[in-house]
Amino acid sequence: MATAVLIEKLKSLENMESMAQFSGKFINPGMDEEDHYPPEGLAVLKEIDGIIDDILITQKGRPNFDAIIQLKDAGFRVGPGEQDDFGWLTGVVYTRRGKIVFG
């Protein structure tokens, strides 16, 4: 159920024409950048930031591949960001409106 909420928020972000300028760039939902993002985009990014780690990272600190598959089925690619010998340090959700880092 929580994954469906994240998917809904990501789709909402993708439908925002005001976020088109960030296509292909990293967008950081955790940064308080009122001057950088349009207000409606910032509001959705903050909502995403509030739930993304809980959904895409397991209690053991590993990628939640069940949720990642659900995002893939909804049209969003998720992959590793930074990695080390132990695995993912961060993850990235790729949207039409930019790349969102989590972790």
Please indicate the percent range of residues in DSSP E strands (runs of 2 or more): 15-25%
Give me the Rg, rounded: 13 Å
Low-confidence stretches: none
Number of helices: 3
Number of strands: 6
Distance between the termini: 20 Å
H-E order:
HEHHEEEEE
Measured as a percent range, the helix fraction is 25-40%
Q: Average the pLDDT over all residues and give the rounded result.
A: 90
Structural class: alpha+beta
Strand order of the largest sheet: 1-6-5-2
What is the number of domains?
1
Mind explaining what this structure looks like?
It is a single chain. The strands form two sheets. The chain has a four-stranded mixed sheet, with helices on one face. The protein has a two-stranded antiparallel sheet with strand order 3-4. By secondary structure, it is an alpha+beta fold. The longest helix is centred in the middle third of the chain and has 18 residues. Helix content is 39%, strand content 19%. The chain has one domain.
